Amino acid sequence: MSTKKDVELRSESSMSEKLETSVLLKFIKPFDGSRDKLYSFINNCDNAFKLASQSQKPLLLNYILCQHENKAETAASIKDFESWEQLSQFLQSQFGERKRYAHLLLDLQESQQLPNESVSQYSLRVESSLYKLLTEITLANKKKVELSGKISAMEELALHCFIMGLTPRISNFVRMKNPQSLNEA
User: Fold this and answer.
1) Which residues form the Retrotransposon gag domain (predicted)?
2) For residue range 23-39, what is the model confidence (pLDDT) as tens digits?
């Protein structure tokens, strides 16, 4: 004998499984990267994902990516996303309250390897700062001709900051190798 609560739970479960993909897609409106629309966009996408079945989620993720315009499209095109959670975090970090170019540059220049931090952890931290800085440069840059030069300059700066921020013994060893890129270092 089923209780009323069991019947309600089963009907809610079957309702989410029976929602057609076309209905879920109506939740998702275009997103242009503006900060004032970010949280409503994320909220709508969250709601669509909650109602989607497992088989609908990959299609939904691709549809969300197709709904990006302008700055959002540019930023999202430089990375591959495997889940909505990953994309949502990326959008919040890129278009939510964020540091400006000068603050990002300062973060990169002041980075130092912490006493209990491995070289690979420090490297990831520097790469993360560089990635945020390059994204800001790409989004803010109006002239495509200047973009490659700015990117190269920031990559060289990141390499220099990485080497100088290492502990002295490791820094000397890396400088002797004369690396040409952050990955090589």
Assistant:
1) 75-132
2) 888 889 999 988 778 88
